[in-house]
Amino acid sequence: MKGSILVTGGAGFIGSHTCLALVEAGYEVSVVDNLRNSHPGAVERVEQLSGQPVRLHVLDLLDVEALEGLFRGSHFDGVIHFAGLKCVSESIDQPLDYWYTNVGATTNLLRAMERHGVGRLVFSSSATVYDPTSALPFREDNPLSPINPYGRSKLTVERILGDLATAGSPTRSISLRYFNPVGAHESGTLGEDPLGTPNNLMPIVMRVAVGRLPYVTVFGDDYPTADGTCVRDYIHVMDVADAHVRALGFLESAEGHTAVNLGTGQGSSVFEVLDACAAAVGRPIAHRVGPRRPGDAPVSFADPSLALKLLGWRAERDLSDMCADSYRWQAANPAGFGSPFPELSSRSNS
Ligand code: UD1
């Protein structure tokens, strides 16, 4: 056994895939999750796939006493911190919720880690921390200037981790700045299952593919890109999960705080994603071009070279793998982790 890792938000999309990668790498994994936007079924699937137990603690990191009880009753060698809110538009409408949850919960966690001598933290950050108008590809030393409360809450946590490093805190940390994680475990039994109406492109495309939504609205085709649609650096969630396992290893010897991009370095347009998904699904993905979504940068993709240098990591899977694995998951689990189709239940209630 390599050690015992606490994964906050481990019932969520990236969290659950990372739990699987951790268990397969020989770690003992405990999950803490408040299940606000996640499913206990995801943790069960991790157990089924790995054949190993994963303990789920349903609690909120804002509950200091419950958190203290968890740390007092367990031994952790490190923490991977995914738990948080991640919807940009919601963060603009409800900024206090985002500051309280994303920053407040993290300070609670850091204090519990300090009190109990847990010295390694992998933090789930985002490419949203970059100034969207800065030079491409985004490198870790690009100007940091997020344009919404969600991004600012992520950057604030990075700053806190930097302050701890400056103060000589024993907490060694790494912030992984995700570009656009998509895809699913190749078995098709673990994948992304957002509660309610999804906001992100791939879950919307997949719901169209299985008939839960009628079409994808393409948010603008008049951007200054080759086909007029926005370009993003989509990255397979299992590659992201693998990077977390490597990040834990990196923290065995690294000091202070480090920030590292997780991307492929390759940009794909919305139309390219629709085409790749159509190829995976075997039929076209219905779509209509609509207006731009406020706050969308035309192009975003990573320079992933620091991850290769520090973690020995590079993305192994391409866009067609991402679409094929997403569809395998969605087709086998059209209602996600066992939830009824919202469309069907509202029809049967009427
Ligand atoms: C978004 C967030 C980002 C967050 C990430 C979490 C914004 C501006 N950014 O990234 O901060 O970290 O989600 O996963 O919200 N698109 C469509 N139609 C749709 C949905 C999306 O055309 O119905 C387009 C978008 O314009 C964008 C691309 O698809 O160009 C990807 O969108 P999305 O999956 O929401 O990711 P980001 O906006 O890159």
Which class do the helix and strand fractions yield? Answer: alpha/beta
Low-confidence stretches: 339-350
What is the CATH superfamily label?
Answer: NAD(P)-binding Rossmann-like Domain
Our measurement of the CA-to-CA distance between the termini, rounded to an integer number of angstroms, reads: 53 Å
CATH topology: Rossmann fold
Whole-number total of structural domains: 1
Care to count the β-strands? 13
Largest sheet composition: 7 strands, parallel
Describe the structure.
By secondary structure, the protein is of the alpha/beta class. The protein has a single domain, classed as NAD(P)-binding Rossmann-like Domain (Rossmann fold), CATH 3.40.50.720. It has twelve helices and 13 strands. The longest helix has 21 residues, at 95-115. The chain is globular, with a radius of gyration of 19 Å. The N and C termini lie far apart (53 Å). The protein binds uridine-diphosphate-N-acetylglucosamine.
Provide a concise account of the structure shown:
This protein has 350 residues and is an alpha/beta fold. Helices cover 41% and strands 17% of the residues.
Can you tag this structure with a few keywords?
single chain, 12 helices, two-stranded parallel sheet, Rossmann fold, alpha/beta, 17% strand, 7-stranded parallel beta sheet, 350 residues, binds uridine-diphosphate-N-acetylglucosamine, 41% helix
Write the layout of secondary structure elements.
Layout: E1 3-8, H1 13-24, E2 27-33, H2 40-50, E3 55-58, H3 64-73, E4 78-81, H4 88-93, H5 95-115, E5 120-126, H6 149-166, E6 172-178, E7 180-182, H7 201-209, E8 216-219, E9 231-232, E10 234-236, H8 237-250, E11 257-262, E12 268-269, H9 270-281, E13 287-290, H10 305-311, H11 319-332, H12 342-349
Parallel strand pairs: 1-2, 1-4, 2-3, 4-5, 5-6, 6-11, 7-10, 8-13
Antiparallel strand pairs: 9-12
Helix pairs in contact: 1-2, 1-8, 3-5, 5-6, 7-9, 7-11, 9-11
The protein binds uridine-diphosphate-N-acetylglucosamine.
Uridine-diphosphate-N-acetylglucosamine is lined by residues 86, 88, 126, 128, 150-151, 180, 199-201, 204, 216-219, 230, 232, 270, 293, 295-296.
